[in-house]
Amino acid sequence: MSSLDTLFSLQARVALITGASRGIGFAVARIFGAAGARLALVARDAARLEQAAEQLRGQGYTVLACACDVSAETEVNSAVASVRAQFGRIDILVNNAGILQAGHITDFSAADWERMIAVNLNSAFYLSRAVAPLMIEQKSGRILNISSLTAQTGGVSGSVQYAASKGALLSFTKTLARDLAPHHITVNAIAPGQIETDMGALSDEARARIVGMIPLGRLGTPEDIAYAALFLASDAASYITGATIDVNGGILKR
Ligand code: NAP
Fold this sequence. Notes:
- By secondary structure, the chain is an alpha/beta fold.
- It has a single domain, classed as Rossmann fold.
- The protein contains nine helices and seven strands.
- The chain has helices at 4-7, 23-34, 46-57, 73-87, 110-138, 150-153, 160-180, 204-213, 222-233; strands at residues 14-18, 38-43, 63-67, 92-95, 141-146, 185-192, 244-247.
- Strands 3-2-1-4-5-6-7 form a seven-stranded parallel beta sheet, sandwiched between helices.
- Helix 5 links the parallel strand 4 (92-95) and strand 5.
- The longest helix is centred in the middle third of the chain and has 29 residues, at 110-138.
- It is globular and about 45 Å long.
- It binds NADP nicotinamide-adenine-dinucleotide phosphate (NAP).
- The site of NADP nicotinamide-adenine-dinucleotide phosphate has 31 residues, from helix 2 and strand 2.
């Protein structure tokens, strides 16, 4: 039986986290760094990503910043290759990068639909496929997909394409879990509720209305998601795969 410290430690592990320049992804990087992981951060804006990387290096963590658009297959493949070249392994992949476009179905073009599916869903396919051979070779790995409450309930904001991308991510999670289980790789999802980030920014009126719908009486923080991610990435979760953890203050009504 491992000690609790060992069970939740990510010492010597390499974590690739997308959308890590701010919000939930940055919190996941910070908590994984505190647990001992070496970090590879992905986002598009190279200057902002480097700033985030510097902040984490200032806390003593080993960090590689890889600017990349996760919806572009070739960029993803070269980002994964550079993480492998730098660290020699990848133990944890967090598919977190995402975009939200709110509105009514009649507001959207086919290009809007395709863009959201590309960023929120195709990215998980490209990244998971790129890291899988290495994890298979290592005979271990963790893949975490950041979905949304919207996938299960239709959500309180967002759009049909956002909900569809996040719902598909849950089915993707379950089937990939089955594909990779024989290689001791687990694949799980987290479905956040309303979290305080740039994406989750609300007017005072909307904030009061949404907080009123949350049984625990507050919005979520990026750290609320990062702690669930740490659990799923740790040895403590080695028998959990294909699962979705709801982190939403109790708002879920199935
Ligand atoms: P955020 O604050 O808007 O941050 C999004 C991150 O993703 C940024 O680092 C952004 O950097 C990166 N990103 C966006 N498009 C990208 C692309 N094409 N390629 C690479 N990186 C990209 O969002 P957040 O609130 O932290 O959300 C993180 C995840 O949680 C998303 O998948 C979101 O759908 C999900 N989620 C959020 C909430 C919420 O209430 N906040 C609720 C449920 C689910 P660049 O712009 O520089 O690329």
